[in-house]
């Protein structure tokens, strides 16, 4: 039987009991609805996580312009904001333009102390059209020294180095652009290599090499020589002839005067400080881009001139890469398998002309040599242990 309003008024305890039961019913219904909603959301976000992992897997196979910091497989995903990723990028693939890359690489910490245990490394930068025919010799040279070097390779766009996953050259290609001999595009490639190598804060020395270069001393000797040096190694001299001052362009005046014009080998070795200057500099690079046109050969004049004018105190004015120009042609002599003997290799190592190193004289002046043909590989491998000591 239904109770009237007067019954509740006569029995206030019954009214209070009903109110309590109503509250409990509402509370239980809220809990049930909450649990159901939570289960639905878990299923939804679980499926989104699977989709996200699948998208990341696909991104690893996308062109470099679209890639993120994710490295294949997904389980090896890298935190883009971690100190490790910032200090030592593991993935050389990126979508930065040259201007963006040079701006990023030009950043220099104001704080002298490092917030990590820094082991200085030598960045070996290979500028090549495609394959590296002397690769096995370099792999032997690098063996056992992983903590002390980095490798960067600039090849023609679209070319992929065919190396094993255990090779120190594996995944060491940088995003590249077309290069034409004798044009400013060679400078662009050199600066591109420098900028990518500068992103690793452990890199302290930077050496430019070609596919025809070889190391003529073992890794320990090369490393200690470069890391311990007070100067960079960029050849810079005044050549009064047609192939030196004869390439000067009057439109460079007054920013670059004739008596400041210098020439030198393209194959350089730089300290970190000087490398930052090179990727940051725009004034003289623009002058060379505009006026040092064929047959001016900017790769032989830009660094020697710029460094001589503005950073001379940081430079030794010599190269550490031996080459034979005795043929007096547009290219140096190339040595094949028939030329490789122990006496020949020793003559390069012991060149007979001492040079200056940290204000003292030394008999070790060259660390690398070129040009060596692919046929030189087997004889070089046979002599490597006995002569080059690696």
From TrEMBL:
Where exactly are the transmembrane stretches of this chain? 17-36
How is the protein disposed in the membrane? Single-pass type II membrane protein
Give the matching Pfam families.
Answer: Branch
Q: What are the UniProt keywords, alphabetically?
A: Glycoprotein, Glycosyltransferase, Membrane, Transferase, Transmembrane, Transmembrane helix
* Keyword Membrane attributed: yes
Gene Ontology terms, MF aspect: glycosyltransferase activity
Q: Please state the span of the N-terminal signal peptide per the UniProt entry.
A: none
Name the record gives this protein: Uncharacterized protein
What is the organism of origin for this protein? Malus domestica
């Amino acid at each position: 039987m239904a109770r009237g309003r007067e019954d509740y008024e006569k029995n206030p305890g019954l009214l209070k009991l009903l109110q309590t039961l109503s509250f409990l019913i509402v509370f239980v219904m809220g809990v049930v609805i909450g649990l159901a909603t939570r289960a639905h959301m878990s299923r939804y976000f679980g499926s989104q996580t699977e989709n996200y992992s699948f998208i990341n897997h696909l991104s690893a196979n996308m062109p470099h312009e679209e890639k993120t910091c994710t490295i294949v497989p997904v389980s090896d995903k890298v935190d883009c904001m971690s100190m490790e990723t910032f200090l030592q990028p593991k993935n050389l693939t990126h979508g930065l333009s040259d201007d963006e890359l040079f701006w990023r690489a030009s950043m220099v910490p104001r704080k002298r102390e490092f917030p990590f245990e820094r082991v200085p490394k030598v960045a070996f930068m290979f500028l090549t059209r495609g394959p590296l025919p002397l690769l096995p010799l370099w792999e032997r040279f690098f063996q056992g020294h992983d903590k002390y070097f980095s490798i960067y390779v600039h090849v023609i766009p679209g070319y992929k180095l065919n190396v094993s996953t255990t090779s120190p050259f594996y995944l060491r290609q940088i995003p590249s652009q077309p290069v034409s001999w004798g044009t400013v595009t060679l400078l662009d490639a050199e600066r591109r290599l420098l900028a990518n190598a500068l992103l690793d804060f452990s890199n302290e020395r930077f050496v430019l090499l070609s596919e025809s270069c070889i190391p003529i001393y073992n890794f320990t000797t090369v490393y200690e020589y470069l890391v311990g040096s007070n100067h960079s190694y960029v050849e810079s001299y005044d050549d009064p002839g047609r192939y030196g001052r004869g390439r000067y362009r009057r439109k460079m005046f007054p920013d670059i005067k004739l008596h400041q014009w210098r020439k030198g080998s393209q194959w350089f070795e730089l300290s970190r400080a000087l490398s930052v200057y090179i990727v940051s500099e725009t004034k003289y690079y623009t002058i060379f881009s505009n006026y040092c046109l064929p047959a001016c050969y900017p790769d032989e004049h830009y660094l020697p001139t710029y460094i001589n004018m503005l950073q001379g105190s940081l430079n030794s004015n010599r190269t550490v890469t031996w080459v034979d120009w005795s043929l007096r042609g547009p290219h140096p002599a190339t040595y094949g398998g028939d030329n490789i003997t122990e006496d020949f290799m020793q003559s390069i190592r012991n060149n007979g002309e001492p040079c200056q190193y940290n204000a003292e004289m030394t008999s070790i002046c060259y660390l690398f040599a070129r040009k060596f043909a692919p046929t030189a590989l087997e004889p070089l491998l046979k002599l490597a242990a006995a002569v080059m000591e690696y």
